[in-house]
Structure formats: structure tokens, C-alpha cells
């Protein structure tokens, strides 16, 4: 009986889904689809009440989006006297469903599209939904220029819905950064964490400290494997790099603000500071003259740590943060705090002497002393600090917000101490990790599959959930040399994260999400956004079973695909051996395992080839 009921339930769900061609990501809080469509034609008007320049600007952008998809530019009116075929934007401060400043209500009938919200942020998000509906309907219904009849009430689960881009390890142009922000906005992200400084490049103009960009923004050019590049050679010119002028940054901030995205700049101290130290060698306790690191091995070899015992370091930081705070309007500045090696502090007589005089017993406490002083500098500039979870070591600065990346634990601990947290555990949110089998993907480290990003809860049990500001995906760029590849690593895992951050937990559903993925790929294509299809590819794992035989297991992230494989160096097709659920016993002496996923007779993913030695390595 239970089985029959659940079958009926499943059947009903898929019928409901088939009728619901919306495939919106992130999934709205409430969506009721009716019959019929609103067709955009030459009689359609766009109604934008006067009085809000922001709303007018949004209305004009809406017209551009509509034109991109339909080729039609709608006449704009301020009000309407008679019923007409229109798309109407409405700011309604008393709207109480949703009574949320980022929420919106979108009502589409055959004769009218009405989008209302309390604030322009809500209108903006409603427009992103509208924009998706238009692109999706084009694909799904072969009815260009039309929108499904639908009632949507929607608002976000989390206040902080972030993505981070590391522009230090590789430099990304101002225009690329803008595009990245535009892409984020489509999926209702609202924080862009800009990792502006690190050992491999200082990327923000600081007018009072010109060497930061004259020297710190440039390194010798290298390609190959990060961490194994040759160090700079004598007299070799540092020609790779770049930086953003303050004018560039103002432009990017204005661009992000129009898209309801707050930019949080990160100046990573006291570790990860080799580029700054290359520019101003007095900043480290060692005082050596270094070049900006090009991606060669240097950890605990070159001193990339600021000297917390030297007042000149705090004067330097005051200058940096004066200019950073004046540029960025947001309330937070990220001060890094991660992975600061204690090695050079331990070696330095000056630092050790300072610790004795101050009664500081451990290097962790010294780091805490440093972060607290940075917090004081920023507090004077009316900014709050965020630091990576290492700032817990030695004691948190009084008002710091913690960004938890080494799992959830740091964030949980910070929340227990009453601090705000943003969860960004590497296991679920690091966008620089492999998204599929390493044999098929560009070289990196560790693995984050699409499903793992999707099935993650950024609000852990046992803490005061009001302290959880939200979550974030992080793209470190050691192995990301181009903008196209940055997009490839970001999408579709950030589609998953957008739903994790925006949609109510009860609306998150991996089966539904998978069905929305391919329609969304078309939306990404239309928006010229690069993305990975690794979720459809086969991933091989291996181990030694109880009889010490080498066995391989094959899987895809996407459900419902069939996997075929060979062990004889031929390419598999649907007449090859089909992988069931039992691991394959790998015969001795084979050359390689080949596998591919199929849907019906058509390949669904790429051909995977794993040599025997690689299977043996994975079993270790
Ligand atoms: C980090 O990944 N070092 C924050």
C-alpha cells in the first residue's frame, strides 16, 4: 500500500512538474501555475510609475532584456487609465506578502503582468525571475515572446548570498568582473567578495602607497602547474598582472549597486602578504627583499607575514584601510586572517621580545592582538571586520564576523560566542575544486560535485540561527587563468548554491533541481556564460575489496543515466557492458577502463578513460 501511494505521489509530482515549465533557479517560495500565456506583442506597454528614478532605471533595463529575447521595445507609460495589455512595475510599501525588503509578488495573467514589491531590491529580483521565465519559455514552449500564467510570491532564505572571486593569483579585467557580477545578479546573489590581495598580486590602487601596485601588482609570467613554477630568475621582468585603479573600482561598485550587489573587499593580512612585502620590505619581521610570487613554492621559505611588533605596519594598514573604507560603501571589510604562518614570528628576536613585553604567550595570541588592532583601525572608519575562521585562534576580536571555511566548526564556535557568521566550508562551497573525474577536468585538488554543493545546509543545528548571515561560494584562482575558466568553475555549482541560499529548505529538491538544469543551460548559453557539464559525466572511484581485488565504482551526479564501460581499450556504446550497482572487478594487466553515460542511445556525458595505474592510485 505504501508503495502504491508513493508511486501515485511520484506520478503526480512529475505531471505537476511537466505542467510547470518554469524551471526557475533559485526555486521561488510559492509558485502556482495557471492555464494560458501572456504574449508580448506590439500592443504591450510597460507601465512604470514616476517618482522613483531607481524604478525608472530598472524599467528601462527591463525593456532592454525584453528586447534581447523578443526583438520588441515596449512603449513606456507612467500610468494607465483603462485596462490594457501591460507589464506593470509597482512599488508598494504596504505589501505584506511578502513583507520582506528583498521579496516580490509576480502575478501573470493572459492580459497583465504585475510585479510589486516593497523596495526596488524586490522589483529587481522579480525582474530576474521574469527574465528567466522569458528565456525559459522560449525554449520550453516554442512560443517566443510569451510568459506562463503564474502567481509567484518570493523572498530569500538568507541575507548574505555571496560569491568570492580571487583576482590575485590570476588577474581578471574590470570588464570581466562586471560580467561576473551581472551573472551573479541573474541568480539573486547579493554579495560579491573581492579577494584583492594575496602573495601573487596586489590588485587595488592605494594612492598613498604607490609601490603596492607599481611593484606588488606584477609577477613573472608562468604557465604549467601552480606551486611548481620556477621562481623569478635574476633580472627577469615581472610582466604578468594588473590592478584596478580607484576609478575602476568606483565604476565596478556603481555597476554592482545597480544590481543590488554589495561588494566586500578583502585585504588579506597578516599572512598572504608577499605582494605587499615585495613592495615595502619593512612590513615583514624578516625584512628581506622578495619578488611577488608567481605560483612557485615559497611557504615557510619566503616571509609573507606582516610584522605585528612594528608600529609602521599599523601605520601602513591605516593608510590602506583609509582609502579602502572611503571607496567601498558597504559596512564590512574582509581582513583575511587565514593561514598566517607563525614560523617567521617564531624566528624573529624582535617579535619574540615584543611578545614578552606585551605579556603575549603564544603566536596565536599574537595573531589575535594583530586582528584586534586592525578591528580598531577599521572601527574608526565606521567599518566592521570579517575574517576567515583562523581569527578564532588566540581569541576573537570583539565585533568580528567569522567566515567559516575549514568546515562548519569555526562558524559554530563563533556563533556560540555570540558572533555573526558566514558559512563557506570548502567541502561544499569551494568552486576551485574538481567538479568531475580528474581524468576529465582541468587539474586542481580535491572534489566538490554539483550534488554536494546542492545538498548542503548553511544553517547548522544547535546555534542561534539569527547569527548566520548566510553562505558563500569561493573561487580561488591558482588554477583559473582566464575568465572563461572562472565561469566554467562557477557554473552550474553556483546555480545549486543560489538555491541553497535563496529558496526555503522545504523547496529544495535535488530531483527537481536536476530537471531544471538543462533548461537553465540554455539560459546560460543565451547569456554567454560558460559552464561545466561534469555532473553528466562518469566519475570512477576504486578500492581494494575484502579479497584484496581492485574494484571500480562508477557514478554520475545526474540520476537516470545509464553507464556503459569497457576494459578492452574500445570505446563503449549501449551494446557494451552496462554498469549496475556492483563494483567492477578490474582484471590484472588491463590497460584502461573506459566509461560513458548515455540517455537512451545518445551519449549524455563525455568519454572517461582511466588508466590502470590511476585506478590503483585511487585505491590507495
Ligand atoms: C582559505 O581558503 N585560505 C580561506
Automatic annotation (TrEMBL):
One of its GO terms (molecular function) is beta-N-acetylhexosaminidase activity. Its EC number is 3.2.1.52. Residues 22-155 form the Beta-hexosaminidase bacterial type N-terminal domain. The keyword Phosphoprotein does not apply. It is an enzyme of class 3 (hydrolase). It catalyses: Hydrolysis of terminal non-reducing N-acetyl-D-hexosamine residues in N-acetyl-beta-D-hexosaminides. It comes from the Bacteria. Pfam families: Fn3_assoc, Glyco_hydro_20, Glyco_hydro_20b. The keyword Signal applies. Keywords: Glycosidase, Hydrolase, Signal. Residues 1-18 form the signal peptide. Residues 159-504 form the Glycoside hydrolase family 20 catalytic domain. Belongs to the glycosyl hydrolase 20 family. This is beta-N-acetylhexosaminidase. It comes from Mucilaginibacter lappiensis.
Amino acid at each position: 500500500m505504501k508503495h502504491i501511494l508513493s508511486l501515485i505521489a511520484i506520478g503526480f509530482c512529475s505531471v505537476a512538474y511537466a505542467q510547470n515549465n518554469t524551471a526557475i533557479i533559485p526555486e521561488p517560495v510559492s509558485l502556482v501555475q495557471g492555464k494560458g500565456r501572456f504574449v508580448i506583442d506590439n500592443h504591450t506597454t510597460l507601465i512604470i510609475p514616476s517618482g522613483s528614478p531607481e524604478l525608472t532605471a530598472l524599467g528601462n533595463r527591463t525593456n532592454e532584456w525584453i528586447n534581447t529575447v523578443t526583438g520588441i521595445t515596449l512603449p513606456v507609460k507612467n500610468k494607465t487609465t483603462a485596462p490594457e495589455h501591460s507589464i506593470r512595475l509597482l512599488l508598494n510599501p504596504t505589501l505584506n506578502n511578502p513583507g520582506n525588503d528583498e521579496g516580490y509578488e509576480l502575478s501573470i495573467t493572459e492580459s497583465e503582468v504585475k510585479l510589486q514589491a516593497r523596495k526596488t531590491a524586490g522589483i529587481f529580483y522579480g525582474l530576474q525571475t521574469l527574465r528567466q521565465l522569458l528565456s525559459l519559455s522560449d525554449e520550453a514552449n516554442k512560443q517566443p515572446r510569451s510568459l506562463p500564467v503564474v502567481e509567484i510570491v518570493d523572498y530569500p532564505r538568507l541575507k548574505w548570498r555571496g560569491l568570492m572571486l580571487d583576482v590575485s593569483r590570476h588577474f581578471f579585467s574590470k570588464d570581466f568582473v562586471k560580467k561576473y557580477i551581472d551573472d551573479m545578479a541573474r541568480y539573486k546573489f547579493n554579495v560579491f567578495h573581492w579577494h584583492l590581495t594575496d602573495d601573487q598580486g596586489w590588485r587595488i590602487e592605494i594612492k598613498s602607497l604607490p609601490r603596492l601596485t607599481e611593484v606588488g601588482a606584477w609577477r613573472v609570467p608562468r604557465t604549467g602547474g601552480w606551486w611548481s613554477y620556477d621562481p623569478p630568475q635574476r633580472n627577469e621582468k615581472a610582466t604578468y598582472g594588473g590592478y584596478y585603479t580607484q576609478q575602476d573600482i568606483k565604476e565596478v561598485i556603481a555597476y554592482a549597486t545597480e544590481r543590488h550587489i554589495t561588494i566586500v573587499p578583502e585585504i588579506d593580512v597578516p599572512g598572504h602578504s608577499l605582494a605587499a612585502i615585495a613592495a615595502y620590505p619593512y612590513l615583514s619581521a624578516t625584512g628581506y627583499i622578495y619578488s611577488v610570487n608567481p605560483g612557485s613554492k615559497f611557504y615557510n621559505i619566503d616571509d609573507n607575514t606582516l610584522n605585528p611588533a612594528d608600529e609602521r605596519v599599523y601605520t601602513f594598514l591605516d593608510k590602506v584601510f583609509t582609502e579602502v573604507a572611503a571607496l567601498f560603501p558597504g559596512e564590512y571589510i574582509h581582513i583575511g586572517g587565514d593561514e598566517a604562518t607563525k614560523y617567521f614570528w617564531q624566528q624573529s628576536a624582535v617579535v619574540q621580545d615584543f611578545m614578552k613585553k606585551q605579556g603575549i604567550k603564544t603566536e596565536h595570541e599574537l595573531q589575535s592582538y594583530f586582528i584586534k588592532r586592525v578591528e580598531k583601525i577599521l572601527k574608526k572608519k565606521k567599518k566592521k571586520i570579517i575574517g576567515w575562521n583562523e581569527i578564532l585562534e588566540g581569541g576573537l576580536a570583539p565585533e568580528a564576523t567569522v567566515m567559516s571555511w575549514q568546515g562548519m566548526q569555526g562558524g559554530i564556535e563563533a556563533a556560540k560566542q555570540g558572533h555573526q557568521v558566514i558559512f563557506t566550508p570548502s567541502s561544499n562551497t569551494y568552486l576551485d575544486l574538481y567538479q568531475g573525474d580528474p581524468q576529465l577536468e582541468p587539474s586542481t585538488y580535491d572534489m566538490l560535485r554539483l550534488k554536494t554543493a546542492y545538498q548542503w545546509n548553511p544553517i547548522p543545528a544547535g546555534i542561534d540561527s539569527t547569527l548566520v548571515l548566510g553562505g558563500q561560494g569561493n573561487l580561488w584562482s591558482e588554477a583559473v587563468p582566464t575568465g572563461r575558466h572562472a565561469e566554467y568553475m562557477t557554473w552550474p555549482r553556483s546555480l545549486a548554491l543560489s538555491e541553497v541560499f535563496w529558496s526555503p529548505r522545504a523547496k529544495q529538491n535535488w530531483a527537481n533541481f536536476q530537471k531544471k538544469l538543462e533548461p537553465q543551460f540554455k539560459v546560460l548559453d543565451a547569456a554567454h556564460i560558460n559552464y561545466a557539464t561534469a555532473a553528466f559525466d562518469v566519475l570512477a572511484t576504486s578500492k581494494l575489496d575484502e579479497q584484496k581485488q581492485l574494484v571500480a565504482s562508477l557514478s554520475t551526479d545526474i540520476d537516470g543515466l545509464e553507464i556503459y564501460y569497457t576494459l578492452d581499450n574500445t570505446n563503449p556504446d549501449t551494446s557494451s557492458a552496462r554498469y549496475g550497482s556492483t563494483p567492477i572487478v578490474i582484471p590484472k594487466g588491463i590497460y584502461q577502463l573506459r566509461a560513458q553515460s548515455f540517455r537512451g542511445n545518445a551519449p549524455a556525458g563525455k568519454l572517461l578513460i582511466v588508466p590502470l595505474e590511476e585506478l590503483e592510485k585511487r585505491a590507495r
